[in-house]
Automatic annotation (TrEMBL):
This is Ras guanine nucleotide exchange factor K. The chain crosses the membrane at residues 65-88, 108-125, 157-179, 199-222, 268-292, 304-324, 417-435. Keywords: Membrane, Transmembrane, Transmembrane helix. PANTHER family: GUSTATORY RECEPTOR, RAS GUANINE NUCLEOTIDE EXCHANGE FACTOR K. It comes from Gossypium australe.
Length: 442
């Protein structure tokens, strides 16, 4: 069998179903699909509907006006009004000062993260658009395996958002019901009572949902982008596993993935770093205030603080885990290429010595891919008539060893080592705050 026939056969197996399943292929993944089209079978329809309901639709001048007006109302005006204790009067006891302090500690970080998420989304929609932001236009160069896997990830994208938002929403609703049933709203020239409390309850709850949703939406978009690159690395693994894999084709595919990783890092680096600063400052301010306060802590005065901390950390960990996973995949490609190079070298030596098997294949690894996160455990098979020579394979291994970064923050890979450094830094801050609290209490 000729080398070209082997390569063509492997490519046809790898892209199985590309032609026969064209009519069953999602409309989003067809080349003829236009960016402005929004049909019932469009996978981006749920994204567009969600953006419209969240007042984040920037596709028209009217949508931009409504978006900025909603942001000013729910992320600026309502938090400022709800932070003023002069409007609240406790029906039973004096209004506790700790509740006001905790409320201020909650409102400012939530508004800051909402402003960060809104600014990030506005820049993205103005520069790229939704399809280019999610790298959908580049999917035509990918295999059927990657495209179908990314379609499933698009369907599951809002599940991450719902898993964080819905439980927190129920807790927040309970807290606000207790709060507004205990506190009476008093405004000048407005009669206080049940209608005013109900309006304030709806506005405050809507403000919380809006600010939390804007921040978590950016986290979900970043996680979705990372999942696409993970699927592409899995496709690159299949190129190493399959017969007829050429070093030049693997190099071109890795260069394409590396370029998109650099684009993703450049787009989200400001959001990740700014989120880290805001969340770190708010969490340690809350820790210092809670430990230094001598009053009793209960669900009434610190329930908002608990919900705010949970949402902030959940969204930020969603970003960190997605970035660490894809960086781990990128760093493991050098080990995969080294195993592949060693296997091919041993095979060629066996062929020259007349020790190859009768069927032309010699499996040299029996490791099954039991752990999807371990990129070094894989089954490698090869053909005796492989087109890649020793120099090409050695150059590919050297290239992967020096280009093994995934998501980077100004040149620093966001991998497990950086996560350990962040943990050590945060833990040191916690110990410092605890020492200050002990001194203050003494």
């Amino acid at each position: 069998m000729k080398t070209n026939d082997i390569m063509n056969g492997c490519k046809s197996d790898f892209d199985h179903g590309k032609d026969t399943d064209y009519f069953n292929e999602p409309l989003l993944l067809r080349p003829s699909y236009a960016r402005s089209t929004s049909l019932l079978c469009d996978e981006l329809r749920s994204f567009r509907i969600s953006l419209r309901w969240c007042a984040l639709d920037h596709s028209s001048s009217t949508g931009k006006f409504v978006s900025y007006l909603t942001f000013i109302l729910l992320a600026v005006f309502v938090p400022i009004i709800s932070s003023l204790p002069v409007w609240f009067q406790d029906l039973s006891i004096a209004f506790p000062t700790e509740t006001t302090a905790f409320n201020l500690l909650v409102q400012f970080p939530e508004s800051a993260l909402a402003f960060l998420g809104f600014f990030t989304l506005s820049c993205f929609f103005r520069r790229y658009g939704l399809r280019q932001l999610l790298f959908l236009d580049a999917l035509q160069q990918d295999t059927t395996f990657v495209r179908r896997g990314y379609t499933r990830e698009l369907d599951k994208a809002f599940r991450y958002l719902a898993c964080i938002l819905l439980p927190s929403f129920f807790v927040e609703v309970v807290h606000k019901i207790i709060f507004f049933s205990t506190v009476k709203i008093s405004l000048p020239y407005v009669s206080s009572g049940f209608p005013l409390n109900s309006i304030a309850f709806v506005l405050v709850l809507g403000s919380w949902v809006y600010r939390t949703g804007v921040f978590l939406l950016v986290c979900v978009l970043f996680r979705l982008t990372c999942e696409l690159q993970i699927l592409r690395f899995q496709g690159l693994h299949k190129m190493f596993e399959g017969c007829g894999s050429d070093g030049g084709d693997i190099f071109q595919e890795h260069v394409r993935i590396r370029k998109q990783l650099a684009i993703t890092s450049h787009r989200y680096r400001f959001f990740i770093i700014a989120s880290l600063v805001i969340i770190t400052a708010s969490q340690f301010a809350a820790l210092l205030m809670v430990l230094a306060s001598k009053s009793d802590k209960n669900f009434f005065n610190s329930g908002d603080l608990l919900v705010c901390s949970t949402v902030q950390l959940s969204g930020f960990f969603l970003c960190l885990l997605g970035a660490a996973r894809i960086t781990h995949r990128a760093q493991g490609m050098a080990a995969v290429a080294s195993r592949w190079h060693m296997s091919m070298t041993c095979a060629m030596a066996g062929v020259e010595q007349g020790k190859q098997e009768d069927d032309g294949f010699l499996p040299v690894s029996t490791c099954n891919e039991t752990d999807s996160d371990d990129s070094s455990d894989m089954f490698i098979s090869f053909c005796a008539q492989h087109p890649s020579n020793f120099q090409t394979r050695q150059a590919l291994v050297s290239y992967l060893q020096h280009n093994n970064k995934g998501i980077t923050l100004f040149g620093y890979a966001l991998d497990r080592g950086l996560l350990h450094t962040l943990f050590a830094f945060e833990f040191s801050l916690v110990m410092w705050i605890l020492s200050k609290v002990v001194v203050l209490n003494d």
